[in-house]
Write a structure and sequence with these properties.
Elements lengths: L2 H7 L1 H15 L23 H17 L7 H7 L8 E5 L7 H4 L7 E5 L7 H12 L5 E7 L3 H12 L7 H14 L7 H18 L5 H6 L4 E7 L6 E3 L2
Parallel strand pairs: 1-2, 1-3, 3-4
Antiparallel strand pairs: 4-5
Helix pairs in contact: 1-2, 7-8, 8-9
Bound molecules: zinc ion (ZN).
The site of zinc ion has 8 residues, from helix 7.
Length: 240
């Protein structure tokens, strides 16, 4: 059971979560420190936003260079059974070729990952990152797009051809359409441009998400960045 789910079941954590939910619903200030976990299970993850970005990109450099760490999952399980303090929240595409934990050579308890085809934010995604920021004290958020994104490519074709995709896909198209339309007259590769634009739009949406994340960003407790994963070599290019 995840900590968020567990917080609904366990009385002490339930009070903490309800306080968080109540504060958010009431538009109150970011919860105080007493509201967060007492003892983070991974002290090395208690870092500044810039420190978190260094950890993340160093992990990507190890991944690209083929010198990833050996992770001890057995001992990690016990250390993380009572809590979590991930140093970054990542919004990633669902594409099977993108694996944030691998791409940043990270262990369990390091990355708080939400995934959806096309890596765009809806209210549930924002709520998830609000939980990471307000309760888990996560100092860094990243929107991670990737080259050759099929969801964005399908959106480009749907808009260009005026076709309506089957099933629930039109919902995805409407979520990605703002990025596609914004780059319609830009020179260069339309798909590459739309992928980058979609990352930048969602970075701005996350930064502006009231009442929790925008306040944390203004107070410099949280940094929001965008990146694009290159399928060929595994390198993540920072956009912001
Ligand atoms: Zn994709």
């Amino acid at each position: 059971m995840c900590q968020l789910c567990d917080s609904v079941a366990a009385p002490a954590s339930r009070r903490r979560f309800l306080k968080f939910a109540g504060a958010a619903a009431a538009g109150l200030a970011l919860p105080s420190e007493g509201f967060a976990q007492k003892a983070p299970p991974k002290p090395s993850n208690t870092v500044s936003p810039d420190g978190a970005l260094n950890l993340l990109m160093n992990g990507n450099r190890r991944y690209v260079g083929g010198v990833t760490k050996r992770h001890d999952f057995k001992n990690e399980r016990e250390a993380l059974s009572k809590g979590q303090n991930p140093y970054v929240g990542i919004l990633s595409c669902a594409d099977s070729r993108i694996a944030p934990e691998y791409a940043f050579d990270s262990a369990r308890g390091d990355l708080f990952v939400c995934r959806v085809a096309g890596n765009f934010l809806n209210d549930d995604g924002i709520a998830s990152f609000e939980y990471a920021v307000a309760v888990l004290n996560t100092p860094l958020l990243m929107v991670l797009g990737h080259k050759a994104c099929g969801a964005i490519d399908a959106t480009i074709k749907s808009i260009k051809d005026g076709t309506t995709l089957p099933g629930h896909l039109p919902s995805l198209v409407s979520a990605l359409a703002p990025a596609v339309k914004a780059v319609a007259n830009q020179p260069g590769d339309t798909l590459d441009n739309a992928i980058r634009q979609n990352v930048l739009l969602n970075v701005e949406k996350l930064k502006a998400a009231t009442p929790i994340i925008d306040k944390a960003v203004a107070e410099k407790k949280v940094r929001v960045v965008g990146g694009v994963y290159n399928l060929d070599n595994g390198r993540v290019e920072l956009l912001s």
